[in-house]
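Inverse folding, one chain.
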């Protein structure tokens, strides 16, 4: 599986209350509006790479796509 270079949208600083501001270009591209709920994912299995933010309304779509393709993913990983 090839590494896909992520897009860079700038930087954000964590405030005293743990809040961050998402850059406007990112919010426009992914249609993130005030009041939208974002899920924050992370864990030891991801190492020190970072965190993942995902709009809650599309998580089920992501999981469905992953589930539909898991057989192909496993086959490819066995071939490598």
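Residues assigned per position:
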């Amino acid at each position: 599986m090839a590494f896909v270079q992520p897009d860079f949208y700038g930087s954000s600083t964590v405030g005293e209350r743990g809040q961050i501001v998402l850059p406007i270009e990112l919010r426009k591209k992914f249609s993130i509006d005030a009041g939208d709920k974002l899920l924050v994912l992370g864990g030891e299995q991801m190492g020190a790479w970072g965190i993942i933010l995902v709009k809650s309304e599309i998580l089920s779509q992501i999981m469905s796509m992953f589930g539909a393709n898991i057989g192909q993913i496993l086959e490819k990983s066995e071939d490598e």
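The first strand starts at residue 38 and ends at 41. The two ends are 9 Å apart (CA to CA).
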